[in-house]
Amino acid sequence: MKQDKISEAVVRRLPLYLRYLNELTISGVQTVSSQDLGDKLDLNPAQIRKDLAYFGEFGRKGVGYNVHYLIEKIRQILKLDKILNVALVGTGNLGRALSNYSMYIRDNMKIVAVFDSDPSKYGTFINRLTVQPMNELSETVKRLDITIGIITVPATEAQNVADRFVEAGIRGILNFAPSVIKAPSGVRVHHADFTGELLSLAYYMDHEKS
Amino acid sequence: MKQDKISEAVVRRLPLYLRYLNELTISGVQTVSSQDLGDKLDLNPAQIRKDLAYFGEFGRKGVGYNVHYLIEKIRQILKLDKILNVALVGTGNLGRALSNYSMYIRDNMKIVAVFDSDPSKYGTFINRLTVQPMNELSETVKRLDITIGIITVPATEAQNVADRFVEAGIRGILNFAPSVIKAPSGVRVHHADFTGELLSLAYYMDHEKS
Which sequence positions fall in the DNA-binding region (chains A, B) (predicted)? Predict the structure, then answer.
Protein backbone atom coordinates (compact mmCIF):
# COMPACT_ATOMS: atom_id res chain seq x y z
CA MET A 1 0.00 0.00 0.00
CA LYS A 2 1.31 3.44 -0.88
CA GLN A 3 1.06 5.56 2.24
CA ASP A 4 4.04 7.85 1.81
CA LYS A 5 2.12 10.68 0.27
CA ILE A 6 -0.67 11.03 2.82
CA SER A 7 -0.85 14.67 3.75
CA GLU A 8 -0.72 15.91 7.30
CA ALA A 9 -4.25 17.28 6.99
CA VAL A 10 -5.55 13.79 6.13
CA VAL A 11 -3.64 12.16 8.96
CA ARG A 12 -5.14 14.70 11.34
CA ARG A 13 -8.67 14.01 10.12
CA LEU A 14 -8.39 10.22 10.49
CA PRO A 15 -8.58 10.29 14.31
CA LEU A 16 -11.72 12.41 14.04
CA TYR A 17 -13.31 9.86 11.70
CA LEU A 18 -12.26 7.14 14.09
CA ARG A 19 -13.84 8.93 17.04
CA TYR A 20 -17.20 9.21 15.32
CA LEU A 21 -17.06 5.68 13.90
CA ASN A 22 -16.42 4.38 17.41
CA GLU A 23 -19.51 6.27 18.58
CA LEU A 24 -21.51 4.65 15.77
CA THR A 25 -20.50 1.12 16.78
CA ILE A 26 -21.57 1.86 20.35
CA SER A 27 -24.98 2.86 18.94
CA GLY A 28 -25.10 -0.33 16.87
CA VAL A 29 -24.85 1.46 13.50
CA GLN A 30 -23.24 -0.77 10.87
CA THR A 31 -22.98 1.36 7.73
CA VAL A 32 -22.38 5.06 7.20
CA SER A 33 -22.38 7.28 4.13
CA SER A 34 -19.85 10.02 3.43
CA GLN A 35 -22.82 12.39 3.63
CA ASP A 36 -23.60 11.26 7.21
CA LEU A 37 -19.94 11.57 8.15
CA GLY A 38 -19.76 15.00 6.57
CA ASP A 39 -22.90 16.26 8.32
CA LYS A 40 -21.72 15.07 11.67
CA LEU A 41 -18.11 16.19 11.36
CA ASP A 42 -18.74 19.47 9.54
CA LEU A 43 -16.65 18.31 6.59
CA ASN A 44 -17.34 18.14 2.89
CA PRO A 45 -18.51 14.58 1.94
CA ALA A 46 -16.38 14.75 -1.21
CA GLN A 47 -13.36 15.51 0.99
CA ILE A 48 -14.14 12.50 3.14
CA ARG A 49 -14.47 10.20 0.12
CA LYS A 50 -11.17 11.55 -1.17
CA ASP A 51 -9.45 10.98 2.19
CA LEU A 52 -10.69 7.43 2.43
CA ALA A 53 -9.86 6.70 -1.20
CA TYR A 54 -6.18 7.17 -0.33
CA PHE A 55 -6.35 3.82 1.36
CA GLY A 56 -8.26 1.94 -1.31
CA GLU A 57 -11.94 1.65 -2.18
CA PHE A 58 -14.00 0.91 0.89
CA GLY A 59 -17.37 2.53 0.27
CA ARG A 60 -20.11 1.16 -1.95
CA LYS A 61 -22.34 3.53 -3.86
CA GLY A 62 -25.80 3.80 -2.29
CA VAL A 63 -24.74 1.59 0.62
CA GLY A 64 -21.93 3.53 2.22
CA TYR A 65 -19.03 2.37 4.30
CA ASN A 66 -19.01 -0.62 6.58
CA VAL A 67 -18.31 0.95 9.97
CA HIS A 68 -16.34 -1.95 11.43
CA TYR A 69 -14.24 -2.37 8.33
CA LEU A 70 -13.48 1.36 8.20
CA ILE A 71 -12.46 1.37 11.86
CA GLU A 72 -10.14 -1.57 11.26
CA LYS A 73 -8.61 0.10 8.20
CA ILE A 74 -8.03 3.43 9.93
CA ARG A 75 -6.59 1.72 12.99
CA GLN A 76 -4.26 -0.20 10.70
CA ILE A 77 -3.18 2.96 8.86
CA LEU A 78 -2.55 4.77 12.14
CA LYS A 79 -0.71 1.68 13.44
CA LEU A 80 -3.12 1.23 16.33
CA ASP A 81 -2.83 -2.52 16.12
CA LYS A 82 0.02 -2.33 18.61
CA ILE A 83 0.06 -0.66 22.02
CA LEU A 84 2.23 2.44 22.43
CA ASN A 85 3.43 3.37 25.90
CA VAL A 86 3.59 7.04 26.82
CA ALA A 87 5.44 8.98 29.53
CA LEU A 88 4.24 12.35 30.77
CA VAL A 89 6.37 15.02 32.44
CA GLY A 90 4.65 17.80 34.39
CA THR A 91 1.82 17.04 36.79
CA GLY A 92 0.04 20.40 36.89
CA ASN A 93 -3.60 20.82 35.89
CA LEU A 94 -2.95 19.96 32.26
CA GLY A 95 -0.81 16.92 33.08
CA ARG A 96 -3.49 15.64 35.42
CA ALA A 97 -6.21 16.24 32.85
CA LEU A 98 -4.31 14.30 30.19
CA SER A 99 -3.47 11.44 32.54
CA ASN A 100 -7.13 11.00 33.36
CA TYR A 101 -8.28 11.08 29.78
CA SER A 102 -10.00 7.79 29.20
CA MET A 103 -9.63 7.70 25.41
CA TYR A 104 -6.10 6.42 25.63
CA ILE A 105 -6.96 2.91 26.47
CA ARG A 106 -9.36 2.53 23.58
CA ASP A 107 -6.85 3.94 21.15
CA ASN A 108 -4.11 1.60 22.33
CA MET A 109 -2.05 4.42 23.71
CA LYS A 110 -1.46 4.50 27.38
CA ILE A 111 0.32 6.81 29.79
CA VAL A 112 2.33 4.35 31.84
CA ALA A 113 4.59 6.71 33.78
CA VAL A 114 4.40 10.30 35.09
CA PHE A 115 7.27 12.53 36.21
CA ASP A 116 7.73 15.88 37.88
CA SER A 117 10.71 17.94 39.01
CA ASP A 118 8.95 19.07 42.20
CA PRO A 119 10.03 16.82 45.11
CA SER A 120 6.76 17.49 46.95
CA LYS A 121 4.96 15.62 44.15
CA TYR A 122 7.12 12.46 44.29
CA GLY A 123 5.20 9.43 45.39
CA THR A 124 1.77 11.05 45.00
CA PHE A 125 -0.69 9.29 42.71
CA ILE A 126 -2.28 10.36 39.43
CA ASN A 127 -4.69 7.95 37.85
CA ARG A 128 -3.06 5.04 39.75
CA LEU A 129 0.45 6.02 38.62
CA THR A 130 3.08 7.14 41.11
CA VAL A 131 4.73 10.47 40.28
CA GLN A 132 8.45 9.78 39.79
CA PRO A 133 11.49 12.08 39.93
CA MET A 134 13.14 13.03 36.65
CA ASN A 135 16.30 11.05 37.40
CA GLU A 136 14.25 7.88 37.02
CA LEU A 137 13.08 8.83 33.51
CA SER A 138 15.73 7.06 31.47
CA GLU A 139 15.53 3.76 33.30
CA THR A 140 11.71 3.78 33.27
CA VAL A 141 11.52 4.54 29.55
CA LYS A 142 13.69 1.54 28.80
CA ARG A 143 12.01 -0.81 31.26
CA LEU A 144 8.46 -0.02 30.08
CA ASP A 145 9.34 0.31 26.39
CA ILE A 146 8.02 3.87 26.24
CA THR A 147 8.22 5.46 22.78
CA ILE A 148 6.21 8.67 23.20
CA GLY A 149 6.72 11.53 25.64
CA ILE A 150 4.24 14.26 26.57
CA ILE A 151 5.49 17.59 27.90
CA THR A 152 3.19 19.57 30.19
CA VAL A 153 5.73 21.76 32.01
CA PRO A 154 6.14 25.56 31.82
CA ALA A 155 7.59 26.93 28.59
CA THR A 156 10.98 27.65 30.14
CA GLU A 157 11.50 23.99 31.09
CA ALA A 158 10.15 22.37 27.94
CA GLN A 159 13.41 22.12 25.97
CA ASN A 160 15.18 20.62 28.94
CA VAL A 161 12.51 17.92 29.27
CA ALA A 162 12.65 17.28 25.52
CA ASP A 163 16.42 16.76 25.77
CA ARG A 164 15.92 14.26 28.57
CA PHE A 165 13.31 12.42 26.51
CA VAL A 166 15.69 12.22 23.57
CA GLU A 167 18.55 10.94 25.78
CA ALA A 168 16.21 8.29 27.12
CA GLY A 169 15.42 7.05 23.60
CA ILE A 170 11.93 8.51 23.12
CA ARG A 171 11.03 8.76 19.41
CA GLY A 172 8.00 11.04 19.46
CA ILE A 173 7.28 14.09 21.59
CA LEU A 174 3.98 15.87 22.05
CA ASN A 175 4.71 19.31 23.50
CA PHE A 176 1.92 21.19 25.27
CA ALA A 177 4.19 23.92 26.62
CA PRO A 178 3.78 27.25 24.83
CA SER A 179 7.30 27.27 23.42
CA VAL A 180 8.98 25.82 20.38
CA ILE A 181 11.20 22.85 21.16
CA LYS A 182 13.76 21.17 18.98
CA ALA A 183 14.86 17.56 18.72
CA PRO A 184 17.39 15.77 16.52
CA SER A 185 16.22 14.17 13.28
CA GLY A 186 14.66 10.78 13.90
CA VAL A 187 12.66 12.20 16.79
CA ARG A 188 9.30 13.61 15.77
CA VAL A 189 7.98 16.64 17.65
CA HIS A 190 4.37 17.82 17.53
CA HIS A 191 3.31 21.04 19.19
CA ALA A 192 -0.14 20.64 20.68
CA ASP A 193 -1.10 24.21 20.95
CA PHE A 194 -4.65 25.01 21.85
CA THR A 195 -3.87 28.68 21.33
CA GLY A 196 -3.25 27.65 17.75
CA GLU A 197 -6.59 25.84 17.73
CA LEU A 198 -8.28 29.00 18.94
CA LEU A 199 -6.51 31.13 16.38
CA SER A 200 -7.45 28.90 13.46
CA LEU A 201 -11.01 28.73 14.82
CA ALA A 202 -11.18 32.53 14.85
CA TYR A 203 -9.80 32.61 11.32
CA TYR A 204 -12.52 30.34 9.97
CA MET A 205 -15.27 32.08 11.93
CA ASP A 206 -14.40 35.33 10.24
CA HIS A 207 -14.03 33.82 6.82
CA GLU A 208 -17.36 32.02 7.00
CA LYS A 209 -19.25 35.09 8.06
CA SER A 210 -17.69 37.68 5.80
CA MET B 1 -5.94 40.09 -0.78
CA LYS B 2 -7.12 36.63 -1.82
CA GLN B 3 -7.37 34.58 1.34
CA ASP B 4 -10.24 32.30 0.50
CA LYS B 5 -8.10 29.46 -0.67
CA ILE B 6 -5.77 29.17 2.31
CA SER B 7 -5.76 25.52 3.31
CA GLU B 8 -6.47 24.35 6.81
CA ALA B 9 -2.94 23.00 7.10
CA VAL B 10 -1.50 26.46 6.41
CA VAL B 11 -3.85 28.13 8.87
CA ARG B 12 -2.76 25.63 11.49
CA ARG B 13 0.92 26.33 10.84
CA LEU B 14 0.58 30.12 11.12
CA PRO B 15 0.13 30.12 14.92
CA LEU B 16 3.27 28.00 15.19
CA TYR B 17 5.23 30.52 13.11
CA LEU B 18 3.78 33.26 15.26
CA ARG B 19 4.86 31.53 18.44
CA TYR B 20 8.46 31.24 17.31
CA LEU B 21 8.55 34.75 15.83
CA ASN B 22 7.34 36.11 19.18
CA GLU B 23 10.21 34.23 20.85
CA LEU B 24 12.63 35.83 18.39
CA THR B 25 11.47 39.36 19.17
CA ILE B 26 11.94 38.69 22.86
CA SER B 27 15.55 37.69 22.05
CA GLY B 28 15.98 40.84 19.96
CA VAL B 29 16.31 39.01 16.63
CA GLN B 30 15.13 41.18 13.73
CA THR B 31 15.41 39.00 10.62
CA VAL B 32 14.91 35.28 10.10
CA SER B 33 15.39 33.01 7.10
CA SER B 34 13.02 30.26 6.03
CA GLN B 35 15.93 27.90 6.76
CA ASP B 36 16.11 29.09 10.40
CA LEU B 37 12.35 28.79 10.73
CA GLY B 38 12.44 25.33 9.19
CA ASP B 39 15.24 24.10 11.45
CA LYS B 40 13.53 25.34 14.55
CA LEU B 41 10.03 24.20 13.67
CA ASP B 42 10.95 20.91 12.01
CA LEU B 43 9.37 22.00 8.76
CA ASN B 44 10.65 22.11 5.21
CA PRO B 45 11.95 25.65 4.40
CA ALA B 46 10.37 25.41 0.95
CA GLN B 47 7.05 24.68 2.62
CA ILE B 48 7.46 27.74 4.84
CA ARG B 49 8.27 29.98 1.88
CA LYS B 50 5.23 28.61 0.09
CA ASP B 51 2.99 29.23 3.10
CA LEU B 52 4.16 32.80 3.49
CA ALA B 53 3.93 33.46 -0.23
CA TYR B 54 0.15 32.99 0.04
CA PHE B 55 0.06 36.38 1.69
CA GLY B 56 2.38 38.23 -0.66
CA GLU B 57 6.14 38.48 -0.90
CA PHE B 58 7.67 39.30 2.44
CA GLY B 59 11.10 37.67 2.40
CA ARG B 60 14.16 39.06 0.66
CA LYS B 61 16.67 36.66 -0.83
CA GLY B 62 19.84 36.46 1.27
CA VAL B 63 18.31 38.69 3.94
CA GLY B 64 15.28 36.74 5.08
CA TYR B 65 12.08 37.92 6.63
CA ASN B 66 11.67 40.95 8.83
CA VAL B 67 10.43 39.44 12.08
CA HIS B 68 8.24 42.35 13.16
CA TYR B 69 6.69 42.71 9.74
CA LEU B 70 5.97 38.98 9.56
CA ILE B 71 4.35 39.02 13.00
CA GLU B 72 2.16 41.94 11.98
CA LYS B 73 1.16 40.23 8.74
CA ILE B 74 0.30 36.91 10.40
CA ARG B 75 -1.63 38.67 13.15
CA GLN B 76 -3.55 40.54 10.50
CA ILE B 77 -4.31 37.37 8.55
CA LEU B 78 -5.45 35.60 11.71
CA LYS B 79 -7.49 38.70 12.64
CA LEU B 80 -5.59 39.20 15.87
CA ASP B 81 -5.85 42.95 15.57
CA LYS B 82 -9.05 42.80 17.57
CA ILE B 83 -9.67 41.16 20.95
CA LEU B 84 -11.86 38.06 21.04
CA ASN B 85 -13.63 37.18 24.27
CA VAL B 86 -13.94 33.52 25.20
CA ALA B 87 -16.22 31.61 27.59
CA LEU B 88 -15.24 28.26 29.06
CA VAL B 89 -17.61 25.60 30.39
CA GLY B 90 -16.26 22.85 32.64
CA THR B 91 -13.86 23.66 35.45
CA GLY B 92 -12.14 20.31 35.90
CA ASN B 93 -8.38 19.88 35.51
CA LEU B 94 -8.41 20.69 31.81
CA GLY B 95 -10.66 23.73 32.21
CA ARG B 96 -8.41 25.05 34.96
CA ALA B 97 -5.30 24.43 32.88
CA LEU B 98 -6.73 26.33 29.92
CA SER B 99 -7.94 29.23 32.08
CA ASN B 100 -4.48 29.69 33.49
CA TYR B 101 -2.74 29.58 30.16
CA SER B 102 -0.95 32.87 29.83
CA MET B 103 -0.68 32.87 26.03
CA TYR B 104 -4.20 34.14 25.64
CA ILE B 105 -3.48 37.66 26.58
CA ARG B 106 -0.63 38.03 24.12
CA ASP B 107 -2.70 36.60 21.30
CA ASN B 108 -5.61 38.93 21.97
CA MET B 109 -7.86 36.13 23.04
CA LYS B 110 -9.04 36.07 26.55
CA ILE B 111 -11.20 33.81 28.66
CA VAL B 112 -13.53 36.29 30.32
CA ALA B 113 -16.09 33.93 31.90
CA VAL B 114 -16.12 30.37 33.26
CA PHE B 115 -19.13 28.16 33.93
CA ASP B 116 -19.88 24.82 35.55
CA SER B 117 -23.00 22.78 36.20
CA ASP B 118 -21.80 21.69 39.65
CA PRO B 119 -23.34 23.99 42.31
CA SER B 120 -20.42 23.36 44.67
CA LYS B 121 -18.17 25.18 42.17
CA TYR B 122 -20.32 28.33 41.93
CA GLY B 123 -18.61 31.39 43.28
CA THR B 124 -15.16 29.77 43.49
CA PHE B 125 -12.37 31.50 41.61
CA ILE B 126 -10.25 30.39 38.66
CA ASN B 127 -7.62 32.80 37.47
CA ARG B 128 -9.55 35.72 39.04
CA LEU B 129 -12.81 34.70 37.34
CA THR B 130 -15.83 33.60 39.38
CA VAL B 131 -17.32 30.27 38.34
CA GLN B 132 -20.91 30.94 37.23
CA PRO B 133 -23.93 28.63 36.90
CA MET B 134 -25.01 27.63 33.40
CA ASN B 135 -28.25 29.64 33.59
CA GLU B 136 -26.15 32.80 33.51
CA LEU B 137 -24.43 31.80 30.27
CA SER B 138 -26.71 33.52 27.78
CA GLU B 139 -26.81 36.86 29.59
CA THR B 140 -23.03 36.86 30.18
CA VAL B 141 -22.23 36.03 26.55
CA LYS B 142 -24.25 39.02 25.41
CA ARG B 143 -22.99 41.40 28.09
CA LEU B 144 -19.31 40.63 27.51
CA ASP B 145 -19.56 40.24 23.73
CA ILE B 146 -18.22 36.68 23.86
CA THR B 147 -17.86 35.04 20.44
CA ILE B 148 -15.94 31.84 21.23
CA GLY B 149 -16.84 29.00 23.58
CA ILE B 150 -14.55 26.30 24.94
CA ILE B 151 -16.00 22.97 26.09
CA THR B 152 -14.11 21.03 28.76
CA VAL B 153 -16.91 18.88 30.15
CA PRO B 154 -17.30 15.07 29.96
CA ALA B 155 -18.20 13.64 26.54
CA THR B 156 -21.81 12.94 27.54
CA GLU B 157 -22.46 16.62 28.35
CA ALA B 158 -20.61 18.19 25.43
CA GLN B 159 -23.50 18.40 22.95
CA ASN B 160 -25.74 19.96 25.58
CA VAL B 161 -23.15 22.66 26.30
CA ALA B 162 -22.68 23.24 22.57
CA ASP B 163 -26.44 23.75 22.19
CA ARG B 164 -26.40 26.28 25.01
CA PHE B 165 -23.50 28.12 23.36
CA VAL B 166 -25.37 28.28 20.08
CA GLU B 167 -28.54 29.56 21.77
CA ALA B 168 -26.45 32.25 23.44
CA GLY B 169 -25.10 33.43 20.08
CA ILE B 170 -21.57 31.98 20.20
CA ARG B 171 -20.07 31.67 16.69
CA GLY B 172 -17.07 29.43 17.28
CA ILE B 173 -16.71 26.39 19.54
CA LEU B 174 -13.54 24.62 20.55
CA ASN B 175 -14.51 21.20 21.90
CA PHE B 176 -12.06 19.34 24.13
CA ALA B 177 -14.53 16.63 25.13
CA PRO B 178 -13.82 13.28 23.45
CA SER B 179 -17.06 13.24 21.50
CA VAL B 180 -18.21 14.64 18.20
CA ILE B 181 -20.53 17.61 18.57
CA LYS B 182 -22.70 19.28 15.98
CA ALA B 183 -23.74 22.87 15.51
CA PRO B 184 -25.89 24.63 12.89
CA SER B 185 -24.19 26.19 9.88
CA GLY B 186 -22.75 29.59 10.69
CA VAL B 187 -21.23 28.21 13.90
CA ARG B 188 -17.76 26.80 13.45
CA VAL B 189 -16.76 23.79 15.56
CA HIS B 190 -13.19 22.61 16.06
CA HIS B 191 -12.43 19.43 17.91
CA ALA B 192 -9.26 19.86 19.93
CA ASP B 193 -8.37 16.28 20.39
CA PHE B 194 -5.01 15.52 21.85
CA THR B 195 -5.68 11.84 21.28
CA GLY B 196 -5.70 12.80 17.61
CA GLU B 197 -2.40 14.60 18.11
CA LEU B 198 -0.94 11.48 19.65
CA LEU B 199 -2.26 9.30 16.85
CA SER B 200 -0.85 11.49 14.12
CA LEU B 201 2.44 11.69 16.02
CA ALA B 202 2.58 7.90 16.13
CA TYR B 203 1.82 7.75 12.43
CA TYR B 204 4.73 10.01 11.52
CA MET B 205 7.10 8.29 13.92
CA ASP B 206 6.52 5.04 12.14
CA HIS B 207 6.74 6.51 8.70
CA GLU B 208 10.00 8.29 9.40
CA LYS B 209 11.69 5.23 10.80
CA SER B 210 10.54 2.59 8.34
Answer: 16-55
